[in-house]
Amino acid sequence: xxxxxxxxxxxxxxxxxxxxxxxxxxxxxxxxxxxxxxxxxxxxxxxxxxxxxxxxxxxxxxxxxxxxxxxxxxxxxxxxxxxxxxxxxxxxxxxxxxxxxxxxxxxxxxxxxxxxxxxxxxxxxxxxxxxxxxxxxxxxxxxxxxxxxxxxxxxxxxxxxxxxxxxxxxxxxxxxxxxxxxxxxxxxxxxxxxxxxxxxxxxxxxxxxxxxxxxxxxxxxxxxxxxxxxxxxxxxxxxxxxxxxxxxxxxxxxxxxxxxxxxxxxxxxxxxxxxxx
Length: 277
Fold this sequence. Notes:
By secondary structure, this protein is an all-alpha fold.
């Protein structure tokens, strides 16, 4: 079955590309190292293997999100990957579902495949967002509603996503009234440092006005610069909200810090130079 008939925001991992082979190798290494590390802490073999699998998946999603944020530079996504090793392997920060949610949400906004999200994509993101909103925090619902709204108003708009935006907004408000209230907490020095560093480092990437060279996977047409920029803004707003509220059950902000800071560091150290493996 051709999966592209079901979803239009799927991006297959082609192993013929050097950077794709590299991330596959890194995922395998993280899986093994994380499993052995967890096993050394007197955990069972099955639990340790599951720890390794979720760790490897989290690193992959960090890489995939970074590719959405900076599509013109294949290598830049590996800086966030490197930064994520310690939180993923040592501290066990494996927010697989929240990371998957963010990846799909960004793809709806930036259209990295070149195509509008199809009905299956919309329903999948709606269901995942509703689940995370109900189980964790209204932030997921508000960000998703914003993403759908952007997609309904930006170039080549998907008008149905205005309805999806209203639905997610309603779910978010309902969640708050049901007692799922997430408020800004007293933040630690570490969180303040993380907040300031990622904002300062990531802002130049948002302000970059150069036309994108990357093309949509399915269409071969240049990506919409404004849409990608909106995706970047959505990412940093999401990261800021999770740092300020510190929703511990989501375990999301440390890896979002890795993405924003890593992309920012690459911009400072390498700039717009093309780096190939």
